[in-house]
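Incident log, structure service

09:12 report received: a user says their structure output differs between two submissions of the same chain.
09:20 pulled the input from the user's history:
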Amino acid sequence: MKDTHQVPGRRVTLRGRGAECAVLEGMVDAVRAGGSRALVVRGEAGVGKSALLEHLVDAASDLRVVRAVGAESEMELAFAAVHQLCAPMLDRLDGLPTPQREALRIVFGLSGGVAAPDRFLVGLAVSSLLSEVAEESQLVCVVDDAQWLDRASARTLGFVARRLWAGPVGMVFASREACEELRGLQALELGGLRDGDAHALLSSTTQLFLDKRVCDRIVAETRGNPLALLELPRGLTQAQLAGGVGLLGAHALSGRIEESFRQRLAKLPCESQRLLLVAAVEPVGDPLLAWGAAEQLGIGVSASVAAETEGLLAVGERVTFRHPLLRSAVYGAASVEDRRAAHLALAEVTDCELDSDRRAWHLAAAASGPDEEVATELERSAGRAQARGGWPLRPHFCSARSS
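09:34 re-ran on a clean worker, output below:
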């Protein structure tokens, strides 16, 4: 939710986040003026990290912005997040010194190498690539859900963020917890909203009149968490709202928010639920892959209407969920059979040459038991990861659940 006032020359700030928005806008101003900055936005699930990143992107609309999102399902794919971030800039590879250019070509699977590239050289190469792009236009790199970055990407991007020495480059990470790889970077810690802002946000979510003592109890139990204040009342009966007691029960806050999402999902048409599952299983948000897999499963284009109308999913240049916890809720609510079908459909539409590692992971998640062909694909994937200087793939047959 947003405040009703607007400071001249600035965009509308998020409710109760004026100081935090000012920090991010100041960072953009510094990059716009030719400086380099790095920042980590930290806080629990639902506290507003992603909303602040969107505010940052809006504030930097005149700069070049590149983005990556950590995905729990991709934590075992070496350099997956680095590739997300750098893929739009690969046309600038030729401007890098030869050793750095070759290191990145090997890391991104664009060429083979006799030996895995030195990780220090990979970090320098990414730094040089960002600087090369920033010479043409000030650059802001946005990385959401950093707690789910694959290990090779986390180390590389942390290395780069600590060494932003040339060109107007900003890097902002959002993470639920402190990450060893991002240690030493300036941190912006997010807590719950102050009581006044929390009460105003809660009042905006329900048309029922709530006694002040009831509102106080709800705000206290959610600890002013904005997403909880927006989502939990949707899943509560009038009697529960009137009581205002024990909203969270024995569940952690993130678990209660997920349960609220699951209740909303259950009201959607079956085909819309299946489409949401495909989107949850495809972590990059590539609409061509998502619709290709949906077609394999016989899901029509109209299936997105209900999900978009409910504000759960947005389909544009990327397929995006309202919140990462919604992705987890979708995956958790699906049957094992439906999950396997979604993974298999995505494996079938994933290019076996350009994205063989992700295809191998989907095949593994779709397997109902030991499979010699899948095991061979995973072994090849592990070999490729080591050849790129990453860590081998260690598939775990589930894995879009939130931590």
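09:41 both user submissions now match this output. Likely a transient worker issue. Closing.
09:42 reviewer note: The chain has 18 helices and seven strands. The chain has a mean pLDDT of 83.
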